[in-house]
Amino acid sequence: MAKSETDNLKTDLPLPLTAMVEALLFVSSEPVPVLQIAEALDVKIDAVEQALSEIRDGAADVVRGVRLQRKGDKVQLTTPPEVAPWIERFLGLDATSRLSKPALETLSIIAYQQPVTRAQIEQVRAWSEESARTAPFAIDLVSVLVSLLAILFGAGQLCLIRRIP
Q: What pTM was estimated for this model as a whole?
């Protein structure tokens, strides 16, 4: 097996730099800045970049189950998308499962108000549950207001109704 350029670095690392970088990326649950890897291993950024290139390119005849993904200065090990069905089966994930109503509510709150804290989500959901009890009254009130607007401004006038935060 041929030695890479990063293997020739004089360091006190127990494995070659490429293997050390790969190990750090393997245990990271999110993308990691290249600078953080360099600082953790006490090596120069250029050496980490070379190791990342070796991980990305790998051996030409070896197909791997993980790949290096990069966005800006952050890197992460990911699985190829084409193996997703097998990973879902292995992890017991049902791709066709439906989200519960509370989960859908939470996702819609996050999508609408992001960034949002857990307390804010709970506050909105509590308000939503309270409003469900008073919804018939609110619907009647809105229809009365629309009727009054139509009387005041004429039926042909455009009425804009907006959400009040």
A: 0.52
